Structure formats: C-alpha cells, structure tokens
Amino acid sequence: MVASTWHHGVVARWWAEFNTSGPEIDYFRRFAEAGPALDLACGTGRLLLPYLRDGLDVDGSDVSADMLACCREAAEREGLAPNLYAQPKHELDLPRRYRTVFMCGGLGVGSTRAEDMQAMERVYDHLEPGGTFVLDNEVPYADGWGWQYWQPDGRATLPLPRREPGKRRVGSDGTEYELRSRLLDVDPLEQRVMMEMQAFMWRDGELVAEDEHLLTLTLYFKDEIVLMLERAGFVDVTVRAALTDAEPMGADDFLVYTACKPAALPSSDGRG
Ligand SMILES: C[S@@+](CC[C@H](N)C(=O)[O-])C[C@H]1O[C@@H](n2cnc3c(N)ncnc32)[C@H](O)[C@@H]1O
What we know:
Layout: H1 9-18, H2 24-33, E1 37-40, H3 48-53, E2 58-62, H4 65-77, E3 84-86, E4 98-103, H5 113-126, E5 127-138, H6 152-155, E6 169-170, E7 176-187, E8 192-203, E9 206-218, H7 222-231, E10 235-241, E11 254-260
Parallel strand pairs: 1-2, 1-4, 2-3, 4-5
Antiparallel strand pairs: 5-11, 6-7, 7-8, 8-9, 10-11
Helix pairs in contact: 1-4
Residues 5, 7, 19, 41-43, 46-47, 62-64, 67, 88-89, 104-106, 109-111 line the site of S-adenosylmethionine.
C-alpha cells in the first residue's frame, strides 16, 4: 500500500491562497519560540511564515515540493529565506538538530501507520537531548461523518459517486478554484480512509488546470498515539485539548500531544 497526498498543483495554490490563518498559529508559537524548531509537514507555511516574520529560528519540511514552492514564494516576497526541505516525514534526514519539532495537521495525512511510526523515530533522532515533539491530531469521531462506511454494508456502497460542480472560491488575483472530494474506500483494520480529490482552476472563466489525486488518511485514537510516541523512545508524553491545554474530554475534536526526548539518553538504539 502506497500512501499519497493531494497537496500538489492546484491544491497547493488553494492552500497558499485560502489557508493562511487559524488559531493554531498562536497556539504553536511558544513551541517555535523554544527553537531552533522544525515545522514538520509545514505545507505552504501557514504557521511557519508568521513565525519567520517574528524572527524565530524555524525550518520547514514537507513531502510536497509544490506546497514548499508556494511557501518559498510568499517568504521571498517578504525578504525571508527559510530552510525548506522536500522530504516525506518517515524519511526525514536534515542537516540540523532541533530543540522543538512541531507538526500541525500532519499525522496520518498522506502516510501509512508504519510510516507514521517511522516518522516519530525520525523526529526523535532530529531532536537535541531534552527536546520536545508536539503534534495535534483530529480524533477519528470528530464530525461523526461516515462511520456507516466502516461496516460491511456501507463499504459495499463504495466508492461514492463523484460530486456535482459546487461553489468556486475566488483568489486574490481573480483566479477561481473548486475542490471536490469523494470517499473511495475504508480499511477498518488499518483505520485508513482513501479519498479521491479533484481540484479545478479557472482564469477569466476558462478552465486552465484540473488535478486529480488520492488522499490516504490514517485515523488514530488517543492512546495509540501515546503508545507510538513511547515506542519511538519519547518520555513524559502528555495529551491536552488543543488550543486550551485543558484536560482532554470526549467532546474535544482536536488533541495535542507533547513528548520529550530524554536529556541524557541512549541514542535511538536505546528505544524500547
Ligand atoms: C493538512 S496540511 C497541514 C499543513 C500545515 N502544517 C498547516 O497547518 O497549515 C498537511 C500537510 O502534510 C503534508 N504531507 C502529506 N503527506 C506527507 C508526508 N508523507 N510527509 C511529509 N509531509 C506530508 C502535505 O503536503 C501538507 O502540506
């Protein structure tokens, strides 16, 4: 099974155009401040760009060269020159070691369970002793949509039909965009969902680009992530409600995990 993501081509442009804000920017800032930091799966720089603007020492990495190109363009417009690396997270291999690695919206996106486990090990190896890994993750039951497709009767109805054309969004230069997605398959044993994603772009009313991608999403429950982090060698793993840092509750859609690399410890070989 090869995992894939849709964050290329038109979708990268969409992200650069429309996904530039959100409360996660302020939430993750304190981790970036404890740098040097790596923004893992940084995308088009929604978090990275504001931090660089504030003079923080943050590098970025992402599997998608297109997302990184948009990030670099936006950075250069402001006279910034970030270190950006195009690498899948499970093969992370960077020249630097970090005090903090943070990952917002990246776990299980475009990766299999084995790759996510490997990615945690790669992060561990990229942290200084005593460093921190922090990541958020949406709980699998967040919006309640689609559980019927995890059962045999529901799975038999997949793939769902393609959607009809919907509402377009207009970018800053008048370019119009539309994204359409549909569920193709669910693998309940692997807790994996496969989506087909279509992206369209029009200029002056004419369709100028049309992309189609597969998006693999691996879904995780809280304790799986804790166990994976511990298996990668992390200690003092904590789980909090995202954005508030409150004790997590069943109603929380997003959870934040922080995990420490021991201050003086065996290298990665010492993992349990
Ligand atoms: C939901 S976006 C989040 C982007 C950014 N962190 C933010 O919050 O704006 C997920 C990102 O994960 C990246 N991604 C998907 N699969 C990946 C992989 N295997 N390794 C590294 N990055 C990956 C995508 O290219 C995309 O930029």
